[in-house]
Amino acid sequence: MNFRITRRRFLSASGTIVAATSLGRSWPMFAQATGSTAPAQTPPWTPVFTPVRRGIGYFTGRGGTIGYLVNAGGVLVVDSQYPDSAKAFLEGLGDRSSHRPVDVLVNTHHHADHTGGNPVFKPVTKTIVAQTRVPALQKQANDTATTPAEQVYADATFDEVWNHAIGDELVHARTFTPAHTGGDIVVYFERANIVHVGDLVWNGLQTFVDRPGGASAVNWIPVCEHIASTYPKDAIYLCGHAKKDLPVALAQADVLAMRDYLTALVEHIRHEIAAGKSRDEIVSSTAVLPGFEVRGPLTKRALEGTYDELSGR
C-alpha cells in the first residue's frame, strides 16, 4: 500500500487552521490539566514547535505535550492532544516532514488531551500504538463523559516493552504503571537520549490522580524513582504538562522532584485522615504543600483519587 500523500490531501485531512509558529508560548491551564473531554469553552491557545535535537522536538498547544521525530527514515509522534490542536500540529509537522505520512503515533495513556486528536491523525497515520489497557480505559472514560467524543483506538498494543526503529533513531516504549493511570508508558529516543514521560511528570502544577482510570498515587512515587534510574542521568525529559513560563524539557532531578511532591501529597492526606477529617473536608482543601508553593493550592483532581486510594474506596 502506498501511504505517501499529496500536500492537498494532507491539508484536507488537517483542516483549515492557524499556521503553527516556532516562537512564543501559551499554556491554557484548564485545557492543559484536563484528563477528560474538552471544555465547552476553549481558552485561547497558541501552537508552538520547539526543536530539541536529532530531529526530535515537542509541540505545545491545547493538551498534553506532543513529541515528534522527523528524520530521513520516517515520522513518529507521541500523543495527539485534542482535534483542533492536532490539526494545527499536523500542518506544522507537514512543513517539517515534507508532508510525509506519520509512520507511528504513540499514545502515552488514555486521557482525552492525549488521544482526542487520534481521529485527525487516522487518515495520515500508518499505525497507532498504546499500552494494552489503553483502548479499554479510553472507551470507559468516553462512555462516562458528559459529552462523549469521536474515538479512534490504538490498532497495535503491547504489555511491557515496545521497540521500533525510525531511520537511525531507536525508539523504546516501556510501561510504568499504575501511576497517573492504569496504562502509562514512557517513550525513549535512545540515540538522542530524550525521554517523553507523558503525564508521569508535571512541572509546577498540581497533578491528576485518575482513580477510576486505574491510578495509584502511592505507586506513582516509586514509579518516578524507577524512571529516573532506568534512563541515563543526562537524559532530557519531556513532561506532559508545565505551568506557564516553566520548561517542558526537564532533567532527572525534576523527575525526582515529582516523586517528592507526590510523597508530600500522600503524606498530607494520610495526616488529614488520621485527624478524623471527612472526605469532603479533605478533597475541598486549597492548602499549599510546604516546599511546593510553585504548584499552587491543592485541587480536587489531585486530592480525590489519592484520598480514595488511601481510604480503600
Concise description?
The chain is 32% helix and 21% strand.
Q: How far apart lie the N and C ends?
A: 50 Å
Task: Estimate the global geometry from the Cα principal axes.
Answer: globular
Spell out the helices and strands N to C.
HHEEEEHEHHEHEEEEEEHEEEHHH
Rg to the nearest angstrom? 19 Å
Describe this structure in words.
The chain has 313 residues and is an alpha/beta fold. The chain has a single domain, classed as 4-Layer Sandwich (Metallo-beta-lactamase, Chain A). It is built from 10 helices and 15 strands. The strands form 3 sheets. It has a 7-stranded mixed beta sheet, with helices on one face. The protein has a 6-stranded mixed beta sheet with strand order 8-9-10-11-13-15. The protein has a two-stranded parallel sheet with strand order 12-14. β8 and β9 form a beta hairpin. α1 packs antiparallel against α3. The longest helix has 23 residues. The chain is globular, with a radius of gyration of 19 Å. The N terminus is likely disordered.
